[in-house]
Amino acid sequence: VSTNAVVAAIKEAGAAGAALRICGRSHWLAAGRPVNAEQTLSLDADSGVVSYVPGDLTLTVRAGTSLAEIDQVTSEHDQWLPLDPYGSSEGTIGATMATASAGPLATSFGLPRDLLLGLEFVNGRGDVVRAGGKVVKNVAGFDLSRLLTGSWGTLGVITEVTLRLYSRPKVDRTFAVTLDAGDEEVTKLLHVIAASPLVPFAFELLSRSPARTLGIANTPVCLIRLGGNAPVVDVQLKALSQIAKTREVEHSVWGELRELDRDAESVIRISTLPSRFLATSARMLADAPAQVSICISPGRGVMRLVAHANGERDGADTGVAASSFELPSDGGDSSATIIFEKLPADVWPVVAPSVVADPLSRGIKQAYDPLNILNPGILGD
Ligand SMILES: Cc1cc2nc3c(=O)[nH]c(=O)nc-3n(C[C@H](O)[C@H](O)[C@H](O)COP(=O)(O)OP(=O)(O)OC[C@H]3O[C@@H](n4cnc5c(N)ncnc54)[C@H](O)[C@@H]3O)c2cc1C
Question: Of the given ranges (112-126, 191-205, 325-339), which has the lowest mean pLDDT?
Answer without folding.
Answer: 325-339
